[in-house]
TrEMBL record:
Organism listed in the record: Serinibacter arcticus
Domain of life: Bacteria
Positions of short motif Histidine triad motif: 159-163
Protein name: HIT family protein
InterPro entries documented for this protein: AP-4-A_phosphorylase (IPR052908), FHIT (IPR039383), HIT-like (IPR011146), HIT-like_sf (IPR036265)
Length: 216
């Protein structure tokens, strides 16, 4: 008796040794490809949106979600705070928990089309959003940015919006690509409530936030 499995040339002991030596599935070494200096924040859950679900097919204000959200209640629209010229809202398809967007009320596509007061308020609200996120969830970094045009990566190119994405060490992991899942530990409504409740104390902004239960 040799202990060989028929037709394989392998033994149970060798199989066990190979399994012990193999890197875990989440380890980059277990995938094909040349290593580089980039981190990748895998977001396959966003394919629902990228593929067209709930995405307006025209650029008109009547179909634009960034134009309709301000007409809803803060709770229903996931609005965290409202300024005079722009507002802060949770992203419905977040890259990370607490992913916010700062959006002008005016239906405008390009950054150069913003007025000087709009630019100033978007900047102020971005600072406020970062302060509130730091106070509520202690991220160790942020990604800030505006995707201009469809070729620039904008999901809704007709209405400018700036992303504020909180980052933590280890959030660019392989869980989403292995399991097809992006872990989000808190429901969006609960995240909105927590951020709105902290806005007045931590944002340093005059924008109005309505915590849960305070809307009229």
């Amino acid at each position: 008796m040799t202990g060989l499995e028929p037709g394989t040339g392998a033994t149970p002991a060798r199989d066990a040794a190979d399994a012990a030596a193999a890197p875990p599935a989440e380890d980059p070494a277990s995938f094909a490809g040349d290593a580089d200096a980039f981190q990748r924040l895998w977001t396959p859950h966003r394919m629902v949106y990228i593929d067209g679900a709930d995405k307006p097919t025209d650029a008109g204000e009547q179909r634009c979600p960034f134009c309709t959200v301000p007409r809803r209640s803060d709770v229903d629209g996931l609005v965290v705070a409202r300024g005079a010229l722009a507002y802060v809202v949770l992203n419905l398809y977040p890259y990370n928990p607490g992913h916010l967007m700062v959006v002008p009320y005016r239906h405008v596509a390009g950054y150069p089309e913003l007025t000087t007061p709009e630019v100033a308020e978007i900047g102020s609200l971005t600072q406020g959003a970062m302060r509130v996120l730091r106070a509520t969830s202690a991220p160790t970094g942020f990604n800030l940015g505006v995707n201009q045009g469809q070729t620039g990566g904008a999901g809704i190119a007709a209405h400018l919006h700036q992303h504020v994405v909180p980052r933590w060490g280890g959030d660019a992991n392989f869980m989403p690509i292995v399991a097809g899942t992006k872990p989000l530990p808190q429901l969006l409504g609960a995240t909105r409530d927590a951020l709105a409740a902290a806005w007045a104390e931590h944002s340093g902004s005059d924008a109005v936030a309505r915590p849960a239960g305070t809307e009229t």
